[in-house]
Design a protein that fits this description.
Beta-Lactamase; 44% helix; alpha+beta; Heat Shock Protein 90; 3 domains; 17 helices; 517 residues; six-stranded antiparallel β-sheet; five-stranded antiparallel β-sheet
C-alpha cells in the first residue's frame, strides 16, 4: 500500500493559528493539485471530520460532490492572476456538504455557501478557500423573490378585477371639503346618473341625499376625528326613487400618510328595508287581531268575579231587608269586593302591558312569564276542561323582551286551545316544560289536540298559512317565528307525531341589546 502523504502547511508568523481558529468561517488551504494542507476548527465542527484524517488528500476525494475540474480551473486562475476568484451560493449552492437539519426555518438540507478562492502563497502555489454560510441570506432572498412574485400576481389579479369591482361595489370618494372625487359604476347605475354630473358635487347635496340633521352632525364629528362610522342613508335616483344604503365611512390617506378625504362603501338594503316594513305591518296586524281575541278572553275572565260581586251585593241587600246585617258582615263583604276588584284591575293591567311597545330588556323568571302568558287563557282552558301542566324550575331566569315572548307563548297556547275546539277527544292536555342548557333556555309546549299532518308541518311558519278550518289569519305562527328568530335571536321548531304536537323554543339566557318591534 502506498504511504499516505501527511504534508501540511507549516505554521509561521504569517499564519496565526489562534486568529484563524477564531474566524467564523471555513478555511481550507490547498495546493495547485487540490491537496488539503489545512482544515480549520470551524470545518471540523460542521463536518465532523478531523483535520488529521484528511491532510494530504485531494479535496474531491474527501467531498465527492465537488467538481474537481471546475475547482482546478478556479485555483489556477487565482494563482495566475494573483487575485481571488469566487463561487456563489446561487450558482454552486455549496462546496462542502454541511447538513442543517437542525435549522427549522431553512428551506434547504445543506448549508448554502459563498466560496472565495484566494491566492495564499504564490511561490508554493497555495490557495485558501474561505467558506461563508449564506443559508439565511439565501432563505431571505428566496422568500423575497417569492413574495415579489406573489405581489406581482396579486397586482395583476387586482388589475383584472378592477373593472368588475367598479361594476359591483357601491363606492364614493370625497375630499376633505366633501366634494365627490370618484364614484363607482355600480353606484351610478343605481342612481341612474352620469359620472360627470356627480364629480365635484357636494356629497351632502340635500336634493340627492336624505339624512337627518342629527345624523349629518354625527358624520361631521366622525370625519373631524377621522374615525370609521356605519350609518344608513336614503339617496334619490334621477327618477326620484328612494334607495336605502348601509354605508361605511373610512378615512383615506395618500402614500405619505396625509389625510386626503374619505371612502364611503355602500350596501343596498332597499329590499331588506321593504321586508322589514312588511314584517312590522304583519306584527301590528297580529297585535290588533290578538287584541280582539284578548277582549273576548277578558269577557270570559270577568264573568266569575263580576258574579262574585253581584252575589255579595245581593246578599247584603237581603240581610239588610231581614235586619240581620252587622258590621262584621259588611267588613267581610267589603274585603271580598275589594279583592275581586283588584283581580279585575290586574287583568286590565296585563291587557294594557301586553300591547305596550316596550323595547326594554328585562330579567324575569320563566315561571313569571308563563303566569303572565296564561292569565287571560285560564277561563277558556277551564271551560274546555283542558288539563294544563307545568314542569319548570321556578328559579330559571332569562333576560329578553318580555312582551314579545308573552305574545309568542299566548299564540302557541291559543293554537292548541283552538285545535281542541275542532276535535272531540277525551283527556285533553297541554303541558309546558322549561329547562336550562348551557347558555340557552329551552321551552317545550306540547298538546294532544290531534297533531299536524307531516305534509303541511313544514309550512306552518309561513305567512298566511293556516291549519284552522275557519277564522284563521295564517299570521300567528309566522309572527311567533319572526319574534323568536329576528327579535329574540332564538330558534323555534315544531314536531308532530300521532295526536301530539310539540313546539320547541330555544332562547339565549341573556339577550344582547337589539331592536324589538
Amino acid at each position: 500500500m502506498a504511504e499516505k502523504s501527511t504534508q501540511r502547511y507549516p505554521q509561521n508568523n504569517n499564519l496565526n493559528e489562534k486568529l484563524i481558529a477564531s474566524i467564523d468561517n471555513g478555511i481550507i488551504i490547498l495546493n495547485d493539485e487540490l491537496k488539503i494542507l489545512y482544515f480549520n476548527k470551524w470545518l471540523e465542527l460542521h463536518t465532523s471530520i478531523k483535520e488529521g484524517d484528511i491532510i494530504g488528500e485531494t479535496i474531491d476525494s474527501v467531498f465527492t460532490n465537488i467538481n474537481a475540474r471546475t475547482l482546478q480551473r478556479k485555483v489556477k486562475t487565482a494563482l495566475r492572476m494573483g487575485t481571488p476568484t469566487f463561487y456563489t451560493a446561487s450558482v454552486t449552492k455549496y462546496l462542502i456538504p454541511i447538513k442543517i437539519d437542525q435549522i427549522n426555518i431553512s428551506n434547504f438540507k445543506h448549508m448554502r455557501q459563498d466560496v472565495s478562492v484566494i491566492p495564499f502563497d504564490l511561490k508554493q502555489q497555495y490557495v485558501a478557500l474561505i467558506i461563508s454560510d449564506q443559508t439565511n441570506m439565501t432563505n431571505i432572498h428566496n422568500q423575497l423573490t417569492f413574495n415579489i412574485k406573489k405581489i406581482n400576481e396579486l397586482n395583476l389579479e387586482l388589475l383584472k378585477e378592477r373593472k368588475t369591482i367598479d361594476q359591483r361595489v357601491i363606492l364614493t370618494k370625497i375630499d376633505t371639503r366633501h366634494h365627490i372625487t370618484d364614484i363607482s359604476l355600480a353606484y351610478l347605475e343605481l342612481l341612474d346618473m352620469k359620472k360627470g354630473d356627480m364629480l365635484k358635487s357636494n356629497y351632502f347635496d340635500t336634493q340627492r341625499l336624505r339624512i337627518s340633521q342629527e345624523l349629518k352632525e354625527k358624520i361631521f364629528d366622525y370625519m373631524q376625528r377621522k374615525e370609521v362610522l356605519k350609518y344608513e342613508e336614503i339617496s334619490l335616483s334621477s327618477t326620484g326613487k328612494e334607495i336605502c344604503l348601509l354605508n361605511t365611512l373610512v378615512p383615506e390617506y395618500d402614500k405619505s400618510a396625509n389625510h386626503i378625504g374619505f371612502i364611503i362603501f355602500g350596501e343596498n338594503i332597499t329590499s331588506a328595508k321593504l321586508v322589514q316594513e312588511h314584517q312590522t305591518k304583519l306584527l301590528e296586524n297580529s297585535r290588533t287581531a290578538a287584541m280582539g281575541e284578548m277582549i273576548s278572553m277578558i269577557a270570559h275572565q270577568w264573568r266569575q268575579p263580576l258574579s262574585v260581586i253581584n252575589t255579595v251585593v245581593a246578599t247584603l241587600k237581603i240581610k239588610k231587608a231581614l235586619n240581620i246585617l252587622n258590621d262584621e258582615i259588611i267588613d267581610e263583604s267589603y274585603i271580598k269586593i275589594e279583592n275581586t276588584i283588584t283581580y279585575l284591575s290586574e287583568t286590565i293591567d296585563d291587557f294594557r302591558n301586553f300591547f305596550k311597545h316596550n323595547k326594554e330588556l328585562k330579567t324575569f323568571t320563566i315561571a313569571h312569564l308563563l303566569q303572565k302568558s296564561t292569565q287571560l287563557l285560564k277561563a277558556e282552558i277551564e271551560v274546555l276542561n283542558i288539563d294544563y301542566e307545568e314542569d319548570i324550575d321556578i328559579n330559571i331566569e332569562i333576560t329578553s323582551y318580555q312582551n314579545e315572548l308573552i305574545q309568542t307563548i299566548i299564540n302557541i297556547l291559543k293554537n292548541s286551545i283552538d285545535a281542541f275546539k275542532e276535535i272531540n277527544t277525551e283527556n285533553q292536555k297541554i303541558s309546558i316544560k322549561a329547562y336550562e342548557e348551557i347558555a340557552h333556555i329551552i321551552i317545550e309546549i306540547e298538546d294532544n289536540a290531534g297533531g299536524i299532518p307531516q305534509e303541511i308541518l313544514s309550512k306552518v311558519f309561513e305567512p298566511y298559512f293556516s291549519t284552522k278550518s275557519k277564522n284563521g289569519t295564517g299570521l300567528g305562527l309566522y309572527v311567533c317565528k319572526t319574534i323568536i328568530q329576528e327579535h329574540l335571536k332564538g330558534r323555534i321548531t315544531m314536531k308532530s307525531k300521532n295526536d301530539h304536537t310539540l313546539t320547541l323554543i330555544e332562547l339565549p339566557k341573556i339577550l344582547q341589546n337589539s331592536v324589538a318591534v
